[in-house]
Request: fold
Amino acid sequence: MKWALIGASNIASQWMVDAIRASGDDIVAVVSGDQTRASAFAAKHEIPHAFDNENALEKLGIEAVYISNTNEKHEAAVLRAAAAGQHVLCEKPLATEFQAAVRMAKACDDAGVVMVTNHHLRHNAGHRAMRAQVAAGQLGRLSSVRLSHSVYLPKPIQGWRLTDRAAGGGVVLDIAVHNADSLAFILGEYPTHVCAMTSNTGMASELEDNAMSIWRFASGVTAFTHQGFNTPFAETHLQIHGDAGSLHATGVLSQAPGGVVALSNVDGRTELPLDSDNLYQRVVKNMHAAIAGQPHVNADGWAGVRSLAVAHAVLRSAESGQTVEVTYG
Reply:
């Protein structure tokens, strides 16, 4: 399959170029709003074509696009790709505005192309193991979740994430969408209500760099979630508790494979075996399955819409000081 990269981004450079090529696919072009940046990216990764305009892709036989430009530009890129009959892998959040994300998912449905939201964390071996344990009833009746996804935002990617709400800046849009998808993948449901508080600790400019919230699920589960850009020495963790057991995971909320998951119950503590599969390679592999009409576990476009709805609810709750209902449209 022939791919074009829309956005000469850090994540494309560090992870997605290799993941796409590992699947046996070709990357034939990269597009950036800055021609110099596009050309440098193409030279570094040995990509034949570099453009500053997506319209230049028309005659290259592109079959799929990976979109990783800033979030306010995603909609135009997805709508163009759908109209051209190209499958879409789009970074999260899908958009900054909820209705834009809805239009994106609907356009791909109407065009009959596969749309994938790049929620890579659900492909971590720890997430997959926890999902299997929950599905098998190993924890009994679930009661609560504790999720801490507070890190230190690396300097090379700080930029707009700390300064520009219009581009999707702030820790909630950047990280809470991941957490919403992770819990949906593991628990099989999205939250119905959110109660949140956010703060600015001086790292971001007039945006939140720290957020804590309680999420309520229809099943009765409540989840505490923490997102942060400002904790260089924190360890991420995810805990799921039920009346027959608990799962304790560390190191499963990052781009790299790895982590530890342990099951605690009446028999003691057992560390679960985990593979070390590359998360992004699994995304591309599952995208191929979706295109072929085969079962897959990727987050589709509508999963991206729902995770954005949760993030928007967190922001609304923090602004209003009240518990709010998540509006999924």
